[in-house]
Design a protein that fits this description.
2 helices; rod-shaped; 66 residues; mainly alpha; single chain; 68% helix
Length: 66
């Protein structure tokens, strides 16, 4: 029973860590898009960041523990 409780809290901590990490990645990506907004598209950065945001959308399905 103690092992189950520890595994549950490790899972909760892992989900919190992933949620914070996803927020940092999204903030960094949006800041990067804002910075390069007026520059010509070199190497498809807009498409890459849009793909990154869509790949992180699955994290929004997790409930927020805050």
């Amino acid at each position: 029973m103690v092992l189950t409780a520890h595994l549950f809290w490790y899972k909760v901590e892992l989900l919190l860590y992933l949620e914070r990490l996803s927020y940092l990645v999204v903030i960094h990506t949006l800041d990067r898009e804002r910075k390069y907004k007026n520059k010509p598209n070199l190497g498809g950065e807009a498409e890459q960041s849009a793909g990154l945001l869509s790949s992180l959308s699955f994290l929004s399905s997790y409930p927020s523990f805050w």
